[in-house]
Task: inverse folding
């Protein structure tokens, strides 16, 4: 065993130790005076973490104001580009010293008293009241306050309800705009709620449209600027002379002068057709709306003959003829030759069927292969039949009187039927005739005593249509 003691560490001269201590001191001082980037970053983070609660709250406020300033300036994509071009301007805009907090406080107060909700699918008045913080009892109080207040419960998708609340959260006023012309309100008073209805009276002006049929009447009319309802009105006006289910051809034309209802320069609705012209297969038909001295309004031709006849051509609008009048047709179900003494108009199930003339219902019920059937007697000479109905319109029963154009039932497939359609028959003195080939009886023309007054209205309208059409065609050729 080696008992030799370990060697002691070498001893450095005292001068060397003093020099090393001095160098270490200098290095420590350099690190304190000139920190590295890592050290500086850590120091900065440490300073933020040691902020007092007051300073933290101030910084959070500054951050919120900066975010709000950014939202306020984001108006459009162009505004975003402009605002982002200079960061120094954005930063200056968010400084607390240059942006007072008062407007934000006003907005908060306003939000507490005025609330709007938009009706969506499944909403009821109760769910809307709940969204703005009103209890179920408030709904009952509103509905029970006035009979007309029940209109607030007749909600439509997209309708906006505006609530004004008191500072303590109770309902002060309820308002809703039903249309561009009508709005309803309910206001709290000392005696309860008061219901009011505001109806704006529009200015009425006239407008003109011209169209050429290239595919269908509805599409061509829409392109020309006619609404669906006005297209239907035009079809009804000329429905005595033109079969819109069969006669429409590519190249047919129409001109219409009609009323527009305007509020604050905005067209909010359309009114009556004042005059119209329809060219079908090269033949032109005219119509002018006229109200006589007794207050009765009808459409007449430009020279004063009645547009209205005892019968309209078809019982269904825009239907397709699936089977013509024939004395030797092979029945699609019975598979044998059997006279088809009427016209079949095919249309979707549930499509309304209209009486083609005034008369009295002598049958509204089942009739063999016709299924659900309505038979109308028109005076002593004429009778019409409507078969295969899905069901009857309200009030249609044996003995009831009907007016021309009144809905009497709906397209179906009852009886011997291969698809949804109405079988329409026309009888003259008990004999079946082709309703498309039958010459329809005319109604009375303008009374002689009113002919001059009528022409004073008719002639300017016809002249305007000619002028408007010529101007439009000339403009399109430029």
Result:
């Amino acid at each position: 065993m080696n008992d030799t003691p370990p060697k002691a560490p070498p001893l450095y001269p005292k001068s060397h130790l003093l020099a090393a201590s001095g160098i270490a001191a200098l290095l420590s001082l350099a690190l304190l005076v000139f920190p590295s980037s890592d050290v500086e970053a850590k120091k900065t983070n440490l300073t933020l973490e040691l902020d007092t609660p007051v300073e933290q709250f101030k910084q959070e406020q500054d951050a919120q104001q900066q975010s709000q300033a950014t939202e306020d300036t984001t108006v459009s994509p162009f505004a975003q580009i402009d605002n982002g071009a200079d960061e120094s301007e954005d930063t200056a805009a968010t400084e607390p010293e240059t942006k007072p907090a008062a407007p934000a406080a006003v907005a908060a107060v306003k939000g507490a008293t005025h609330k709007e909700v938009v009706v969506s699918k499944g909403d009821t008045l109760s769910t809307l009241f709940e969204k703005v913080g009103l209890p179920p009892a408030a709904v009952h109080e509103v509905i029970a306050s006035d009979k007309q207040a029940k209109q607030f419960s007749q909600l439509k998708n997209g309708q906006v309800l505006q609530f004004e609340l008191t500072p303590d959260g109770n309902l002060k006023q309820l308002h809703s705009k039903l249309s561009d012309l009508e709005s309803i309100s309910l206001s709290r008073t000392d005696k309860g709620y008061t219901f009011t209805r505001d109806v704006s009276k529009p200015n009425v002006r006239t407008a003109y449209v011209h169209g050429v049929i290239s595919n269908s009447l509805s599409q061509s009319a829409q392109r020309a600027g006619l609404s669906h309802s006005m297209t239907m009105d035009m079809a009804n006006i000329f429905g005595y002379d033109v079969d819109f289910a069969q006669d429409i051809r590519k190249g047919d034309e129409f001109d219409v002068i009609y009323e527009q209802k305007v509020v604050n320069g905005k067209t909010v609705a359309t009114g009556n057709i004042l005059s119209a012209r329809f060219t079908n297969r090269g033949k032109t038909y005219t119509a002018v709306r006229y109200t006589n001295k007794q207050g009765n309004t009808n459409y007449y031709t430009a020279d004063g003959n009645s547009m209205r006849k005892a019968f309209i051509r078809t019982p269904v609008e825009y239907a397709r003829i699936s089977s013509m009048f024939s004395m030797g047709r092979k029945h699609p179900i019975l598979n044998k030759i059997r006279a088809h003494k009427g016209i079949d108009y095919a249309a979707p199930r549930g499509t309304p069927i209209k009486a083609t003339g005034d008369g009295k219902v002598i049958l509204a019920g089942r009739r063999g292969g016709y299924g659900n059937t309505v038979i109308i007697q028109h005076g002593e000479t004429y009778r019409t039949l409507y078969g295969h109905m899905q069901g009857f319109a309200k009030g249609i029963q044996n003995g009831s009187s009907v007016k021309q154009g009144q809905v009497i039932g709906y397209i179906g497939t009852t009886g011997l039927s291969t698809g949804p359609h109405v079988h329409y028959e026309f009888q003259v003195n008990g004999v079946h005739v082709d309703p498309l080939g039958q010459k329809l009886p005319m109604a009375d023309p303008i009374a002689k005593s009113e002919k001059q007054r009528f022409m004073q209205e008719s002639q300017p309208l016809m002249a305007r249509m000619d002028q408007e059409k010529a101007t439009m065609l000339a403009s399109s050729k430029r």
User: Anything to note?
Assistant: The two ends are 124 Å apart (CA to CA). The longest strand covers residues 266-280. The chain is about 30% helix and 30% strand. Residues 179 and 268 are 9 Å apart (CA to CA).
